[in-house]
Amino acid sequence: MNLTCIICPLGCSLTAEICGETVTVAGNGCPRGAEYAKNECTNPVRTVTATVPCGKTRLPVKTDRPIPKAEIFSCMDRIHRLTAVAPVKIGDILDKTPWGANIVAAGNIEEA
Amino acid sequence: MRDLVIIGGGPAGMAAALAAREAGVEDILILERDQALGGILQQCVHNGFGLHTFGEELTGPEYAWKYIDKVVEKEIEYKTETMVLSISPEKVITATNATDGIFTVEARAIILAMGCRERPRGALATPGTRPAGIFSAGTAQKLMNCAGYSVGREAVILGSGDIGLIMARRMTLEGAKVKAVCELMPYSGGLARNIQQCLHDFSIPLKLSHTVTEIHGRERLTGVTIAEVDADRRPIPGTEEYISCDTLLLSVGLIPENELSLCAGIALDPVTGGAAVTAARETSVPGIFACGNVLHVHDLVDYVSEEAATAGKSAATYLRGAQEKNVDLLLRTDGRIRYTVPQKITEKADTTVYFRVAAVYRNASVSVYSGEKRLFTKKRAKMAPGEMESITLPASVLPENGELRFILEEEK
Ligand code: SF4
């Protein structure tokens, strides 16, 4: 399988060969690429980012770890139901998802 | 009189301020047009920033906050919602805001960090009506991420630069259908990772060598006609295809924002659209420095921060009166290499030269010549216009004066 590594901006072209349980990866510029390719073949994951309303402005949010790719749109549904209340700090947990990731604040808003 | 005034409080301005402070400059003032520090990063809510600088994946706002926190901690003075109107060659800055009215600041040194702006629809001359629903990709990004508007339901994106790719994903996540991304060139100008995670992940077609040839609709956009283009980028008759959509996003290039540089009498490089600078990022006006996207458009904010730190340090050296100018070299390119930054080298030191190529080249080498003498060669398996390249020239190879020619050769 041919893949493009999305872990860093170099975007190495990877090839992954699946043989039973083992995945052999080539073309990766660093070990993170091998890990990415293995995940991509077995359980592809992505970090989801968006913004939610917070008083008169909007707060950037993200999943604090990647979630299964197939759940991206269910994750967006959860994000659409959220509102934040100032003050909020980077890392504050707004929601716990069933996929082991929290939806957290990715910006700071001091006053309401 | 202020020691150092920095125009722009985005990633470049903040990193320059911090580096200048680190190098001993006490009196620093940052002037920022927007309501808060952070610049364009505040609307770039996607992740992938900062791996290079911080070793972790951050969203744009998180990357900005790393610097905002330090600016506050170091008590560096800044004024937001302050618009700089002009800079004179004598380094007198005229600016305006709601509290101070119109005011002037005299500076001993200035760092320009105004960033860039998007090429607008007007620059494309696409025929058709002028309905609502046509946005530059960055404007749509701001409306969506900072104001919470849904920009449209069905979209076509013209241009495959990174902002266009990021917006294809963002609109899809917010429930819109992105029908196609059209790219005039036979290759994408965006990062490979963004093609994967923004287009392939959502099965959005990327149509290379395609452009929008007509815009339809009276009040709101109703559709666009796209067509394939030939090697000279002219639409090929018979390849037209109508796509109904209510939104067209343009991601067709960024232009360094240099009105202020021009009024300060700074010489610009016609290729980058930014100032021509020395390795210290000093412009043709002594004591005025430039860094970040106002100088040339960078792929990664990490590189902006790096360059800004150089400018900050150099401004500190200038203010101490400790600049060393012991060589005088002009950097020239061959067209296949479109430009270099810096454009001049004035100090005998290890110097990293950044450059961009004009097309996709495989198995090519970049050589640096002084007269007939080859000083340096670097081989690359692939170079593309979307990716900024660099070469570090050791101090020992630099001649005293003359031209350094950057030449790209393809291997047979
Ligand atoms: S393999 Fe490593 S170097 Fe290559 S893109 Fe992935 S993270 Fe970057």
Structure write-up:
The complex is a heterodimer of chains A (112) and B (412). With 112 residues, chain A is an alpha+beta fold. Chain A has helices at 31-42, 72-80, and strands spanning 2-4, 13-19, 22-26, 45-46, 49-54, 57-63, 67-68, 93-96, 102-105. Chain A has 2 helices and 9 strands; from the N terminus they run E-E-E-H-E-E-E-E-H-E-E. A 4-stranded antiparallel beta sheet of chain A has the order 5-6-9-8, covered by helices on one side. In chain A, strands 1-2-3 form a 3-stranded antiparallel beta sheet, covered by helices on one side. Chain A has a two-stranded antiparallel ribbon with strand order 4-7. Chain B has 412 residues and is α/β, with parallel strands linked by helices. Chain B has helices spanning 11-22, 51-54, 60-73, 137-145, 162-173, 192-199, 259-263, 301-319, and strands at residues 2-7, 28-31, 47-49, 58-59, 77-79, 83-87, 92-97, 101-112, 116-118, 134-136, 154-158, 177-183, 206-208, 210-216, 223-228, 241-244, 247-250, 254-256, 288-290, 328-333, 337-341, 344-345, 351-357, 361-370, 373-383, 389-393, 401-410. The N and C termini of chain B lie far apart (59 Å). The interface between A and B is medium-sized, with 28 and 30 residues. The structure holds iron/sulfur cluster.
Radius of gyration of chain A: 17 Å
Structural class of chain A: alpha+beta
Shape designation of chain B:
globular
CATH class of the largest domain in chain A: Alpha Beta
What portion of the residues of chain A fall into strands of 2 or more residues?
Answer: 35-45%
The structure class of chain B reads alpha/beta
Order of helices and strands of chain A: EEEHEEEEHEE
Number of domains of chain A: 2
Shape of chain A: elongated
Count of discrete alpha- or pi-helical segments spanning 4 or more residues of chain B: 8
Mean pLDDT across all amino acids of chain B = 94
* Strand elements of chain B, count: 27
Low-confidence stretches of chain B: none
Largest sheet of chain B: 7 strands, mixed
CATH topology of the largest domain in chain A: CPE0013-like fold
CATH architecture group name of the largest domain in chain A? Roll
